[in-house]
UniProtKB/TrEMBL annotation:
Keywords: Aminotransferase, Pyridoxal phosphate, Transferase
Pfam families per record: Aminotran_1_2
Entry protein name: Aminotransferase
Record PROSITE patterns: AA_TRANSFER_CLASS_1 (PS00105)
E.C. no: 2.6.1.-
Residues in Aminotransferase class I/classII large domain copies: 31-388
């Protein structure tokens, strides 16, 4: 029996593949430290858990409106005004089953077969694969490590054409940790003004995990706002990956299109999660800010260790919870048993010899680097980096 040819259009996420390999080794009794996955190692804040429990007791157990409860869409507007000074109405908002689902909705709502989608590299793995599944044409645009992997207006302008329907980026960025300033976004905005038929998908899911100050959204430029699709969710900032809640803020036409898609694919997202999300989005951000402080403490320690390892070149991350070092200095080297050809080999070497899982930069469109998370306890991080340091030292 033949399965669908659609399955050939895209790949499974490399991040999940590495986690799976790590689990397989762990099942054999090997102590693997996971620095591959993209999720906070914290528990969901108590007051949000209480809201979820209350929702169960109050029997919020029926189908919800497809785009989300009106109170949730209102809560998203409240959040966007409070944190980002962005004015939206509930008709501008749709809640979905995780930001990944929101992303899929946004891509399918805007991109037709053959439309070009510009994505600066390195980028989050799912962007390109969802575009390919939607039969769009992915146009990857390299950025420079000297610019902290941030796209310059000139690089953007060279990549854009009249065929470009959508531009996708994240700030703070997974995997590079780069954060765009208002001035840098203004630079990109000046290019987008020349391409009025292009939507701009701004993935802001790491908004709260920012070590350099104020989060800036490209939706703040009023003349672009109708074309900007803000993507955000609860997974990272509130440690709620398993709850599955993502949302979009966009022009009502885009939201209606997403609602049409979602009405057939999934209906409204989980009712308990939606009630908990209302609390998360409108109440105390202190637990989120405390988490960010802890991420920053770990980042500083990881950077300190990395600076002592010859051969790693990297920009210091300004947000998210990853370091993304260039590892080309190890290519062509061997520990006497295995020769490292590329970043994939290095990740497998670190998994098999140091028992630390990381992710190859190839998955993010940057084959010279690997992504190493610091969303793990300080104790595990110390141990993992001790092992990584020893394993890298053996490569001659
Ligand atoms: N965007 C980025 C940049 C991410 O790293 C992730 C999670 N890895 C998501 C979106 C999706 O998050 P979720 O589906 O858990 O809400």
């Amino acid at each position: 029996m033949q399965l669908s040819s659609r399955l050939q259009l895209f790949n499974e996420p490399e991040t999940l593949k590495m986690a799976k390999l790590g689990r397989e080794l762990r099942a054999k009794g090997i102590d693997v430290i996971d620095l591959s996955l993209g999720e906070p190692d914290f528990d969901t804040p108590e007051h949000i858990k209480e809201a979820a429990k209350k929702a169960i007791d109050e029997n919020w157990s029926h189908y919800t409106p497809v785009a989300g409860y009106p109170e949730l869409r209102e809560a998203v507007c409240t959040k966007l005004k409070r944190d980002n000074n962005l004015s939206y109405k509930p008709e501008n908002i749709i809640a979905s089953t995780g930001a990944k689902h929101s992303l899929a909705n946004a891509v399918f709502a805007t991109v037709s077969k053959g439309d070009e989608v510009v994505i600066p590299t390195p980028y989050w793995v799912t962007y390109s694969e969802i575009v390919k599944l939607g039969e769009g044409v992915v146009k990857l645009v390299p950025t420079k490590i000297e610019n902290k992997y941030k796209l310059t207006p000139a690089e953007l302008e060279a990549a854009m054409s009249d065929k470009t329907k959508l531009f996708i980026f994240s700030s703070p960025c997974n995997p590079s940790g780069s954060v765009y300033s208002k001035a840098e976004l203004e630079g990109l905005a000046s290019v987008f003004r020349k391409f009025p038929n292009c939507y701009i998908l701004s993935d802001e899911i790491y908004e709260y995990i920012n070590f350099v100050g104020k989060h800036e959204s490209i939706a703040q430029f009023e003349d672009l706002k109708d074309r900007v699709i803000v993507l955000n969710g609860l997974s990272k900032g509130f440690a709620m990956t398993g709850y599955r809640l993502g949302y979009l803020a966009a022009h009502p036409d885009v939201i209606k299109a997403c609602e049409k898609l979602q009405g057939q694919f999934t209906s409204g997202t989980n009712s308990i999660t939606q009630r908990a999300a209302i609390t998360a989005l409108t109440t105390d951000l202190k637990p989120s800010m405390d988490m960010t402080k802890e991420f920053e403490r770990r980042k500083k320690r990881v950077i300190e260790i990395m600076n002592s390892i010859p051969g790693l070149t990297f920009p210091e991350p300004d947000g998210a919870f990853y370091v993304f070092p260039t590892v080309t200095a190890f290519f062509g080297k061997s520990d006497g048993e295995e020769t490292i050809k590329d970043a994939d080999d290095l990740c497998m070497y670190l998994l098999n010899k140091a028992h630390v899982s990381t992710v190859t930069g190839r998955a993010f469109g940057e084959p010279a680097a690997i992504r190493i998370s610091f969303a793990n306890s300080m104790e595990k991080i110390e141990e993992a980096w001790k092992r990584i340091t020893a394993a890298l030292a053996k490569l001659k």
